[in-house]
Amino acid sequence: MIHLLGVDFRYPKSDFHLAFEEISVELGSAAALIGPSGCGKSTLLNLIAGILTPSSGTITVNETDLQPLSDSQRRLFRLQNIGFVFQDFALIEYLNVLDNILHPWRINSALPLSTENRERARTLADQLGLSQKLHRHPSHLSQGEQQRAAICRALAPKPSVIVADEPTGNLDPSNKQAIVDILLDYIRSERATLVLATHDHELLPAFDQIIDFAKLLPTPSTSLAS
Ligand code: ADP
Ligand code: MG
């Protein structure tokens, strides 16, 4: 379960202000995050992942309250619990596909890189149609292949929460649906939770919940202030 309560967030030296009363996403469910460009979808995903922290409010992810954690505790929590599918894929160009997928284990001493994990990385790549591309570098992959490699990397350590930032943005319709199906299959089989920002309204029926930025209620303090 993901629960955000009375969250207030501003970037330093920016007019942007994100403040809302409450967002909840049930354990094991899929939520789509919609709203116009610039409304704060990526910001919200970064708050859930503990990459950004709010100035007030509470963010609870699977019973862990992120606020009291130090930066290093939050980073560890993120590595162990969150699979982040970045909008621009964020693949590492000097690593091939297999090494990109194995990267979360290499940078996290709490996630040992075992034979079983290597096997899992290959199985995932196979399921996502990348078994022939394991030794290619990202710049030698199509957009769809890069996106699937980024998804393999996010799913490999079996995170309990998947956060995906417009993962279908640059893809053709059949690839879009395939990407969403992969993420939904994962959360259904692992009882994980998905929060996915998107502009693709045709994808929305597959989700359990739609979080529309236009309908978020402001926090009581912001509504008093304005
Ligand atoms: P969305 O993902 O819905 O397009 P974002 O969360 O990326 O929206 O951005 C929300 C607002 O915050 C935008 O006005 C954007 O320009 C601003 N913003 C995003 N990142 C930063 C940053 N690091 N510093 C200052 N302002 C930012
Ligand atoms: Mg965004």
Task: Explain what the structure shows.
This protein is of the alpha/beta class. The protein contains 7 helices and 9 strands; from the N terminus they run βββαββαβαααβαββα. The protein has helices at residues 41-48, 71-81, 97-106, 115-127, 143-155, 173-190, 220-225, and strands spanning 2-10, 17-25, 30-34, 56-61, 64-65, 82-85, 161-165, 193-197, 209-212. Strands 6-7-8-3-9 form a 5-stranded parallel beta sheet, with helices on both faces. A 4-stranded antiparallel beta sheet has the order 2-1-4-5, with helices on one face. Strand 7 (161-165), helix 6 (173-190) and strand 8 (193-197) form a beta-alpha-beta unit. Helix 3 packs parallel to helix 5 and helix 5 (143-155) runs parallel beside helix 6 (173-190). The longest helix is centred in the last third of the chain and has 18 residues, at 173-190. The chain is globular. It starts with a strand and ends with a helix. Magnesium ion is lined by residues 41-42, 165.
Q: What is the helix tally?
A: 7
Low-confidence stretches: none
Average pLDDT score: 92
Rg estimate, integer Å: 18 Å
Bound molecules: adenosine-5'-diphosphate, magnesium ion
- Given the C-alpha coordinates, what overall shape results? globular
Beta-strand level of the residues, as a percent range?
15-25%
Structural class by helix and strand composition: alpha/beta
Strand order of the largest sheet: 6-7-8-3-9
Distance between the termini: 31 Å
In sequence order, what are the helices and strands, one letter per element?
A: EEEHEEHEHHHEHEEH
Major sheet attributes: 5 strands, parallel
Helix content: 25-40%
Count the beta strands. Answer: 9
